[in-house]
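Figure S7 source data.
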Amino acid sequence: MPNQVKARLQSNRKVGEYHHLVLAGEKIADGVKPGHFVSIAIGDTNSPMVTRRAFSIHRATPMTAHGSTLEIVVHPHGTGTDWLAAQEVGTTIDVISPLGKPFALPKNPVSCLLVAGGYGSAPMTFLAEELTARGCQVDMVFGAGTESKLFDVLAAKRIARFFEVTTDDGSSGVKGRVSDVIPNMFLNGHTAVVYACGPMPMLESVAALAKQRNIVSQVAVEESMACGIGVCMTCVLPIVGDDGITRMTRSCVDGPVFRGDRVRWDDLGTVPDDCLGAPKVGGH
Amino acid sequence: MPNQVKARLQSNRKVGEYHHLVLAGEKIADGVKPGHFVSIAIGDTNSPMVTRRAFSIHRATPMTAHGSTLEIVVHPHGTGTDWLAAQEVGTTIDVISPLGKPFALPKNPVSCLLVAGGYGSAPMTFLAEELTARGCQVDMVFGAGTESKLFDVLAAKRIARFFEVTTDDGSSGVKGRVSDVIPNMFLNGHTAVVYACGPMPMLESVAALAKQRNIVSQVAVEESMACGIGVCMTCVLPIVGDDGITRMTRSCVDGPVFRGDRVRWDDLGTVPDDCLGAPKVGGH
Amino acid sequence: MAVDLHSKLGSISLKSPILTASGTAASGKELDQFFDITQIGGIVTKSIMLNPRSGRATPRMVETPSGMLNSIGLQGPGVDQFIENDLRWLAERGATTIVSIAGNDAREFWQVAQKLRGHPAIAGFEVNISCPNVANRGLVFACHPASAAEVVAEVRSAVGADFPLFAKLSPDVTSISEIAYSVVDAGANGVSLINTLLGMALDHRTLKPILGGRTGGLSGPAIRPVAIRAVYQVRAALPDVPIIGMGGIRSGIDALEFLAAGANAISVGTAIFSDPSAPMRIQRELESEIAARNFRSVAEVVSIAHLGV
Amino acid sequence: MAVDLHSKLGSISLKSPILTASGTAASGKELDQFFDITQIGGIVTKSIMLNPRSGRATPRMVETPSGMLNSIGLQGPGVDQFIENDLRWLAERGATTIVSIAGNDAREFWQVAQKLRGHPAIAGFEVNISCPNVANRGLVFACHPASAAEVVAEVRSAVGADFPLFAKLSPDVTSISEIAYSVVDAGANGVSLINTLLGMALDHRTLKPILGGRTGGLSGPAIRPVAIRAVYQVRAALPDVPIIGMGGIRSGIDALEFLAAGANAISVGTAIFSDPSAPMRIQRELESEIAARNFRSVAEVVSIAHLGV
Ligand SMILES: Cc1cc2nc3c(=O)[nH]c(=O)nc-3n(C[C@H](O)[C@H](O)[C@H](O)COP(=O)(O)OP(=O)(O)OC[C@H]3O[C@@H](n4cnc5c(N)ncnc54)[C@H](O)[C@@H]3O)c2cc1C
Ligand SMILES: Cc1cc2nc3c(=O)[nH]c(=O)nc-3n(C[C@H](O)[C@H](O)[C@H](O)COP(=O)(O)OP(=O)(O)OC[C@H]3O[C@@H](n4cnc5c(N)ncnc54)[C@H](O)[C@@H]3O)c2cc1C
Ligand SMILES: Cc1cc2nc3c(=O)[nH]c(=O)nc-3n(C[C@H](O)[C@H](O)[C@H](O)COP(=O)(O)O)c2cc1C
Ligand SMILES: Cc1cc2nc3c(=O)[nH]c(=O)nc-3n(C[C@H](O)[C@H](O)[C@H](O)COP(=O)(O)O)c2cc1C
Ligand code: FES
Ligand code: FES
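Tokens for the predicted FE2/S2 (inorganic) cluster complex:
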């Protein structure tokens, strides 16, 4: 059950190309699990920006000195994220938390690989801790275009058994993409479950690699959202249900985490003909 | 010739219900005379507020340590003025200065009465100094609803020969309106020219009182403006020209200062039938 | 001073004039997490069609200055599922419910209405003849008096005489009053004004339309002046017809503007996206705006802009 | 990499696609204090009528979310004064000039055109058949194909065959493509899209319409998605007709969006009010936006949104 909280911006620290924000407020950390996200209102009541912005929860800490806190990682690259990254400590931020379905955790202490692209690493150390607490083995791989777009590498090094970094330009770790190193990590780690958060093409490749090896994949997708709470039908993508039927499914309430093998990767941005209620010829 | 200046907010001081702002920038004070006004853009380039805001120039000081400076007095009571009053020292403000036609100054050293209502006192000490420099006698009267809406009283006391204050609630000076004290000040001061800046009803009464005694009146009107530079035709009011013909006249370029006897006070907010190009029956 | 918020929408009496806008509140369940949906005037549900419908391809949304474009394309579960899940929940919850219905042709409207007629949970119908998110602009019934009237007549024949029926109109017409006449003439008890304006935005990288549906519906504060004008015009043309006003309402003063222009009730839409509790907040704000002007009831302010004009 | 900004607007060739929007730049004299008006594509002058005209009562402006309403009502000195003062100045200044003309009936349009025909300073006419600020909505010629065509035909007969003539259309119609067809059919070389949307706002204190004219025209970024849609639709319907696009343009990327949607040139209007040098700034920004996408000329980006659709 999400709470709408007028939070206080406790800290705003630039980390590479991102900003690490700490938000404090009553109930802001209640019920938060790895994979949950928050939505944040942009600007004042007269703001020309009428939709909220979504951010993965990096960390949630109930009951600190300043009440509960919640941490996010912001990549400023548009009007709203620029605004948020520019806010000063002390400002009041309208936050709704938690939103969405979190990562499903394995019942048994199995070996897990956590794959992140860019700010997709935001929820990963949080997830790694939960998994470790359940006795799971945790391996991790972070990929990014360049070093300044990597986040939380030190924490990952600390918590992961095997940890790899890839960058497109080779400025850090292996030059290349996460998909170049994942196969070996699957082998060395005897991976049972792979978790991924990052750009859609990366998620697709992770899901494909996992499928080849019958590894369960859990991917956190990123679709454009207007409401973030399930009322507008903006954030849908074609997902295959337990009944084998494909539906245009809301990623804000039924996701953002989906099983990788349930996402119709080839049909993203379309409505597959076999999708429930797909348009007849001539379209809707 | 107006300059568009990216000015630096040098100081922002609350004075009663107003904010006294000092703006610094190259050329910002060039050619400024009492009665000129500036226009200020509100918010950033994505601002939902698409029109500028107009403010009388309180003071203009070419060539200080920080370049030229310009001072205005802001009454925060709407989205734009609230925004401006809330800006912090150091912010960049987009200012166009100077705009409009200033107060006409008498050729000879005559006796002048300066009448202000509310923030209408902003340009008055500036005007008083110019008049004094020309050897004119300067009397002043400031009126407001209540004491906290009076501005610059000390400066006025210093420079004026006779000075009166009126407030509707009697919290300062005479309880009542400026029009209650003006007749006596005309007498005692042997007023030849009266200058007025403030709410339209006040300007109307000043113009009427002046007319009765064949005193020349110069009033700075306040009409809602979209452009402030003469291109949009928003800020018009019915003014009688030298040729005796009434025209809907732009207050941003042909005003804001008009001779009181040229303003069609009874017809404000209408288009008089005898106005040039007035609509036939059925309207435009 | 307490304000009487009760509103009469034709034969429907509402706790308050604040409704949700169709398609921005689903069926109320999600919003009920943020405020008690039984405490506002009512819920107008997402337009429902006969069969399950996938809606359009993504992207379905673009933010624009003080507004947004959407091209959802009436995604929904179909009327049977809607009755079984959404309507049942609304009934149990006890929320005043206005059901929005849509169809590809007049017959489908009739079929949907048939299935819903007489359902105890339904206080009235909003007939969405103005959705811009259809492949064929010709399918925007509200663009033509005749097709608009035909649909309304069909629905009327299905739901029975004088069951509350509101026709939702499009602002993308030469004369909205003309359309309003025709739908009232065809049996609508009232009209809902306005649906979104047809708009488009291009992707700054590809320079192609962003939306999967290419065009989309413009909503939010940006369109409020158009909506106020539409309500004012239709109120002037049809002095006694109940009007549900909407378009960019995000505060109590906005809501008051619509009431004064002639709306008997108002719907909150896009504002919900930035503030899920907007309908409740706006209801509180409206109450104090009314009180601040020394009125005692909503009834006193409805259409007041037309007095002495 | 240098970008070739030259634009062809039918037979008019422009230094750049950036024009001013009629009624937001007067006749260019005031703007010339802020930037050299001969360095942009051209000036579209305030719509001029036969006789001096007072315009409507004040207030004439309301700011709205990301836009504004105006009810100026075509205030102007009349065509004779316009020729003697404004046109003379523009001629001396050497600015490319498109003269916007208006009238209360087709005959007045003809009379105004007669007086202006053949004037050496005039590169083309924009026929304003879409001003919403007229007492009688029936007078908005652009709302009806027949009346729109009639006015255009009259002006055509006055200015002589194939002298550049642009009909300025209103978005407040059911089908803007239909109107575009009819005016081109009647002899317009091209169309200007869009004029303002009819809107209204109420005074929060009195709860009555703020504007002296009650209704007004909505302009500014708020309407940009409607304008882009209109340009895209008309370009799709009339692939070869020159289009002047406008509506909420305040940056180079906005201008690029209009060109890609199908405009051959664009007009900057409301943006001038917040930034008098906007046309020049937007021209610079447009140049770098085009270069950043590795295009070499304006011609390459015009209508590009329609490629492979
Ligand atoms: C579940 C989820 C988790 C996310 N986690 C993070 C995170 O941890 N850190 C981070 O920096 N970003 C994250 N994003 C992406 C972030 O929400 C977008 O970058 C942001 O909304 C863009 O806003 P803008 O104002 O910068 O861009 P604009 O282009 O101004 O946004 C305009 C509109 O489009 C929507 N939009 C645009 N791009 C995206 C996108 N990629 N995803 C969703 N909505 C979009 C915005 O919400 C807004 O409504 C996440 C998105 C989702 C859906
Ligand atoms: C020549 C001139 C000199 C002025 N001098 C001062 C001054 O020294 N100090 C001061 O505090 N105010 C002054 N004003 C008034 C000031 O411009 C308005 O109070 C201000 O524009 C209101 O903006 P807002 O955002 O608070 O209100 P809003 O209601 O948000 O303004 C909306 C729109 O209406 C216009 N508007 C609203 N009220 C007025 C008004 N009274 N006059 C002109 N435009 C208006 C605004 O410019 C804006 O375009 C002056 C106005 C003029 C014309
Ligand atoms: C995402 C979205 C979906 C909508 N879906 C519907 C719909 O299904 N049926 C309908 O009649 N109107 C629909 N509308 C229109 C709204 O009900 C409303 O008429 C319009 O958005 C104007 O109000 P607003 O500015 O407050 O949002 C939708 C609007 C949005 C933004
Ligand atoms: C104050 C004002 C006056 C206008 N006067 C005219 C006019 O005289 N003739 C005309 O064709 N359009 C007129 N317009 C409409 C503009 O030319 C333009 O079509 C419209 O404002 C949309 O562009 P914008 O959003 O960039 O302003 C006027 C617009 C404004 C804001
Ligand atoms: S963003 Fe509105 S339903 Fe998911
Ligand atoms: S404000 Fe535009 S002409 Fe005066």
